[in-house]
Amino acid sequence: MSYCVNCGVELDGTAEFCPLCQTPVHNPRQPVDGDSPAPFPTERSEVVPVPMWELAVLVSAMLASVAVCCGLLNLFLRTNHIWSLYVIGAAAMLWVFIVPPLLWRKLPLPAATLLDAAAIGLYVLLIAWELDGLEWYLRLALPVTALLALILLVQVLLFQKRRPSILSTMAVVVASIAVFVVGLELLGDLYFHGEWVPSWSLVVLIVAGALEIPLLVVRRVPGLRQEARRRFHM
Ligand SMILES: [Zn+2]
Question: Is residue 200 packed enough to be buried (19+ CB in 10 Å), middle (13-18) or exposed (0-12)?
Fold first, then answer.
């Protein structure tokens, strides 16, 4: 057994150089064993990454087969209801969620968010069309989807530059929920009653405000922020 004269590391019999400090190995009593295999790979190799397009093709094929199978089942079982449309639409929506970000790695997050929102909007349109409800789609479902998309887009724009602290995340999430709930009641009221009579969304708004004020105060005051970090292990 040889040891490196420079760094003292134990050397394998096949080593011509110390693997740590590259000092040549000269041990007259134990010549370098050139026949046995080295105990570790001598050439660097890398894990071959799964090509994204292969994954995209796989996902596309899976979703397409689900859609085709349901379409055929629907054709053969012949019901009055075109239920397979929902499955086919859901498969198409999932495809939009998964495949473009796989193929287009540099797809900006705001663009991906808008694309996903458009996919949801189209899926709900499909359901509305099948249920003969274009009116509720235009006056209720589409505005609600647009509101949700807008809130998500604001969150993405706020958070895409740098990782937010837990306090900022909580503040934005609470504010988003409040905006969404108030918007939902507003749109629902306008659709069902023709006028806005805020009721339950006000409760959510008050609770959100009560949560938001301490969050913002703690975020602003450095001493409180430190204390909160320490207490809640943030
Ligand atoms: Zn060495």
Answer: exposed
